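[Automated response] Your request has been received and processed.

Submitted sequence:
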Amino acid sequence: MTKHIFVTGGVVSSLGKGLTSASIGLLLERRGLRVRMQ
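Generated structure:
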């Protein structure tokens, strides 16, 4: 079953959104889940 996580914010915080998304993705992969970012 596919689940989605949305990280939102303003244009200025794009670096923070990228770091947050990468960190969440890494944690989920370490738990054995398959992660795909778009």
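Summary generated for your ticket: Residues 14-30 form the longest helix (17 residues). The chain has a mean pLDDT of 88.
If you did not submit this request, please reply to this message.
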